[in-house]
Amino acid sequence: MALLCKPGFGATTTLNKEFVPRVCVGSRHQSVVGFRLRPFSNARLCVRATQSTSVSTGISGQFAIAGINVDAGEGGLPVVKLHNKQKSECQIYLHGGVITSWKSKGKELLHVRPDAVFDGVKPISGGVPHCFPQFGPGAIQQHGFARNCSWEVVATSNEDDTPCVTLRLVDNEYSRAMWNFKFVVKYSVWLQGDNLCTEMIVKNVDEKPFSFTTALHTYFKADIKGVTVTGLNGLKCFDKDPVTKEPVQSSEDRDEVTFPEFVDRIYKDAPSRVVLRNGLGDTLSLENEGWSDAVLWNPYMTMKLYYKDFVCVENAKLDPVTLQPRDSWTAKLTISPLSE
């Protein structure tokens, strides 16, 4: 069941005044995409994200409740921390709206790359980054601008030991210069027992329709030699050739997908649930609503210093979603540890 943090839901606090986030735009690693558009040719522009401890303290004073607090994280960037009595916890940086840590019973299950930079300028490489309003290369920068933006906290709640935070991203002068539409994205993250749950809502607040693609580019901690992903057999897929960069269509014929080499693969019309075994003794169920496609990625020797330590299992919406004015689109994801 979706859990939006909102007034009247348990212990809740909300933001009443409007806040215009500062935005940053940088670069990102390559990823597979089934289409190509004209590259965005404007020079890289950036306004540094807020990093002061005083800002974190102010947010914490406004939104901290039982199971939720806001601290200064790496690089002084504001980070929201959730925890419950089941010994689950997670961290969400406002820069990029990215979940950088999720622990179940004290064990870390997400991966942040050792080359990740917490400078409020570049995207944070790892965890659960956003790709919006574009997945992969295309008319604007790689994977869009949401992962470079400073998101704002708009609500927190905690009922029945289920701490939840809702973040918001809105258009501004910079985003409209790149992608000339007015929008609101709300992203809720909560812990429900051992599970990590998210809900993303994109709303068109413009007077004209717009289209977008999007994904959650989730990095899982792993021993790549032992990783398997099940639930994808029989699906149409597109492999990105590491040399030509062009997608090659095929069909998945394995019950268990493994990663003995470079893998950058899109699965169209994926099932609502796949299962990941991370090679470290953990089995995770990824169950979703609204994320119609799946992407698997491991860079292999293109990142030879640390490819062995993670795998990306991504939930995506790769056929463009078109929203008319005042319409919205919603997708949900629940990641659950399984006992086997």
From TrEMBL:
Superkingdom classification of source: Eukaryota
InterPro entries: Aldose_1/G6P_1-epimerase, G6P_1-epimerase, Gal_mutarotase_sf_dom, GH-type_carb-bd
Catalytic activity: alpha-D-glucose 6-phosphate = beta-D-glucose 6-phosphate
MF terms in GO: carbohydrate binding; glucose-6-phosphate 1-epimerase activity
Keywords assigned: Isomerase
Family: Belongs to the glucose-6-phosphate 1-epimerase family.
Descriptive protein name: glucose-6-phosphate 1-epimerase
Organism of derivation: Marchantia polymorpha (Common liverwort)
